[in-house]
Task: inverse folding
């Protein structure tokens, strides 16, 4: 094969897989703009027929207002944002201490934080559930947010690496000027770690937005539902209203696509550094 | 200039590490020990726990349902691990050879991994729909007159879960492998080309050994993930039809939070954990046979 034709084959393969990768999104979007009557046509049509009517966004209006997805959206945003902030806070403190502060035995703690990340959720979720019940946190956002303020393996690992790679000279110079160890952290090293902090934030935001098991276990009142939880309950309550299910799915997907597009570099670096979600 | 009293660096370290240490104890080490203890009790959540010794484990080993669930988990791993890592490897090699616009392809392959799991799984559920679904109408168009009922067919339900999981994760594995490929020195390939090695031979004898470290890491990751199937199963099949797609992780959820049989579920979770640990150990044992440092 000559070079041109092998390049052509290469691009055909890449385009074919891109189609497989993206078509479920396309189908979700098209279905969300269909009129219910067009759902069960054979063969399926690719026409987003609702767009041709006087109310092009009717499915979305129904889902957001009548089926309460606007509230779910706000809940998800609040929970994911707060949990991600907690994760950045805790992981930056821990990462900095592991990298740059003296303490005997800190490596044992670090090893334990990393090792326990590989224990399956199934093992810890039952005691976690009992604990949350005992705290009286059932049917609140607390079980979805508070654990993020305490421990995060991937973020701690990533920030430890990042702080360790920064040069020592800044600290020495600041110390000469009389800055205490906290000031050195807060005014010098933390601002320098900004790219890594953003990575930890976006990964935590995405992971928390996507969470399904915990909202199922901890949230009973529909007004507290997150978007994925609300989507599952919409799906089980209504029969085959795929136009609405898909509009809800777009509402659930869009913020993550937006984060990805706006902060692509941070998203890629964050997930690659972690190797695991969460 | 008057100096303010300063906190010592060691005290600061203690303060900075306190949340993580507390979190580790309360949300990780504590629960790990607690669920191990629970696995020796007979406890429906509304009753008092009763010591049961090894009963839970004995019941699991004698239960035909649990046996079915173990086999399902194994079958899922056999589909998911080679499927996702294989596709990821091919995509990574293709992308590494392409000239331009690889950012677009990389972005589209990775997108499924970071978007809302429940949302894309529902979209797939609609695609898999037997009569009105996109997939079966496409297959009929291609000449397959009697395509399977996918989610409603006990033989196809678990492979369907595997298809969605592979579709969702392989872009992530591709990214990790691509990072490995980009460290490979192209002169190796040039030298082999001059010696007359074809593309397949170059792939197996140069590319794979040179990225064996990332490949090993991705394989471990895929293996661990193959045992943690909750969201996709929940939203796609609910473990059905008739338990055909119930895997171990899903069965833990069902026993713990549908039947509230906490002791039995904890024992299942521990068996899952032990199985994952064993598989990982075996992999590390064979690591030096094929992974080049």
Result:
């Amino acid at each position: 094969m000559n070079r041109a034709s092998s390049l052509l084959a290469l691009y055909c393969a890449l385009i074919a897989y891109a189609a497989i990768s993206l078509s479920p999104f396309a189908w979700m979007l098209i279905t969300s703009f269909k009129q219910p009557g067009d759902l069960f046509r054979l063969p399926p049509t690719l026409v987003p027929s609702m767009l041709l009517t006087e109310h092009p966004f009717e499915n979305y209006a129904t889902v957001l207002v009548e089926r309460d997805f606007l509230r779910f959206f706000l809940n998800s945003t609040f929970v994911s944002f707060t949990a991600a902030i907690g994760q950045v806070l805790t992981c930056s403190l821990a990462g900095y201490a592991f990298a740059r502060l003296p303490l005997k035995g800190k490596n044992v703690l670090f090893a334990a934080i990393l090792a326990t990340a590989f224990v399956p959720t199934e093992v810890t979720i039952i005691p976690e559930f009992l604990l949350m019940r005992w705290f009286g946190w059932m049917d609140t956002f607390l079980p979805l947010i508070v654990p993020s303020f305490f421990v995060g393996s991937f973020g701690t690992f990533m920030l430890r690496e990042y702080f360790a790679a920064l040069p020592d000279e800044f600290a020495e110079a600041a110390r000469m000027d009389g800055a205490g160890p906290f000031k050195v952290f807060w005014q010098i090293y933390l601002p320098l770690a900004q790219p890594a902090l953003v990575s930890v934030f976006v990964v935590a935001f995405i992971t928390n937005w996507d969470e399904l098991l915990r909202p199922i276990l901890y949230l009973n009142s529909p007004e507290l539902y997150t978007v994925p939880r609300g989507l599952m309950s919409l799906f089980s309550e209504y029969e085959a209203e795929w136009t609405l299910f898909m509009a809800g799915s777009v509402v659930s997907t869009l913020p993550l696509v937006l984060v990805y597009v706006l902060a692509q570099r941070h998203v890629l670096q964050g997930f690659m550094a972690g190797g695991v979600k969460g | 200039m008057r100096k303010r009293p300063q906190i010592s660096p060691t005290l600061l370290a203690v303060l900075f590490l306190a949340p993580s240490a507390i979190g580790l104890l309360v949300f990780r080490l504590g629960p790990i020990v607690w669920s191990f203890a629970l696995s020796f009790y007979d406890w429906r959540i509304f009753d008092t726990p009763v010591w049961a010794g090894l009963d839970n484990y004995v019941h699991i080993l004698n239960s035909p349902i649990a046996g079915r669930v173990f086999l399902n988990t194994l079958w899922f791993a056999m589909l998911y691990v080679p499927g996702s890592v294989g596709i990821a490897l091919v995509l990574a090699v293709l992308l590494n050879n392409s000239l331009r616009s690889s950012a677009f392809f990389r972005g589209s392959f990775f997108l499924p991994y970071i978007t809302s799991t429940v949302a894309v799984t529902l979209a797939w559920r609609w695609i898999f729909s037997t009569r009105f679904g996109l997939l079966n109408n496409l297959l009929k168009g291609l000449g397959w007159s009697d395509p399977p009922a996918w989610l409603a067919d006990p033989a196809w339900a678990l492979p369907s879960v595997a298809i969605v999981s592979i579709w969702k994760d392989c872009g992530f594995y591709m990214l990790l492998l691509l990072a490995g490929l980009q460290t490979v020195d192209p002169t190796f390939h040039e030298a082999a080309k001059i010696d007359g090695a074809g593309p397949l031979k170059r792939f197996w004898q140069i590319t794979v050994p040179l990225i064996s470290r990332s490949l090993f890491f991705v394989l471990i990751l895929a293996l661990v993930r193959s045992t943690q199937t909750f969201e996709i199963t929940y939203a796609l099949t609910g473990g059905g039809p008739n338990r055909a797609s119930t895997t171990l992780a899903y069965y833990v959820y069902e026993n713990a939070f549908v039947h509230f049989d906490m002791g039995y579920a904890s024992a299942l979770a521990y068996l899952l954990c032990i199985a994952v640990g064993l598989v990982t150990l075996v992999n590390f044992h064979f690591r030096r046979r094929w992974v080049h440092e």
Remarks:
- Chain B has one domain: 40-290.
- Chain B has 13 helices and two strands.
